[in-house]
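Hey, can you fold this one?
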Amino acid sequence: MPKDSELQKDSYDRPRAYPRVPLHSPVEVKTASRLFIGSIENISIGGLLVSSEPVPPASSELHLMFNLAAGRTISATAVVRHATKTTFGVQFHDLSPTAQDAITEYCLNHVRRSGRIPRRLLVTLRGKRKEDLDELAETITLSRNGGLIACRATFFVGNRLELFWPEKKRQAEIAVVSCRPYGPNGLLELGFEFINPDTDFWQLEFPTSS
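Sure. Predicted structure:
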C-alpha cells in the first residue's frame, strides 16, 4: 500500500487528488511582505482555491485563517501551487489534527448532500501502484458522490484507489476522505468520493438530504 508520506499530495499538485467542494468564505492571507483578504472559491482536504487581486506568485509560503462555519476557525500554513491573474490554488501543510478533522468533516458532509442509502455490497479496492493487490471490502452506505466502506486493508486519507464492483463489472477511481476504526475486529471504515463528480456508479435513486 502507498506510504503515509505519499498521501499528502493535493489536487492542486496532482489533478483531483482530492475532490473539491464549494466554500464561499473570506480568508486572511499573510505572506512574508503583506496581509490581505481573499475569497475562497472551493476547498478540498488538501487545499483551497482563492480569488484575490493581485495574487501571490507560485511557490509562495502563506499563513491562512478562515472559517468553515460559525465557531470553526481554521489556521493553516500553505504553499501556492498555481496562480492566474485573479485566483491561486494552495496546498496545506502541517495541518493540526483538529483542523484536518474539521476540513474532512466539512467536505464529507457536503458530499452527503444527495442523501445516503444503507446497502451491503461486496467490492474490491486496489492502490495505484502496479504491485498493489486487490483488497476485499464491503459497503456500509452509498451516496451519489461516494459512500462508506469497511475493509481490513490499511488505507489513509488522501489515497487514490480503484474501486471495482464485481457483480456489475464496474470500476471507478475514488479518493479516501475519512478513515476510522470500525467495530471490534480490526476493520477500518473508509469514507470515499468518486474522483469524477459526474460518475453515476451505483445507478440508484438517492433521497434528498434534509
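The chain has two domains: 14-112, 115-194. Let me know if you want another pass with a different chain boundary.
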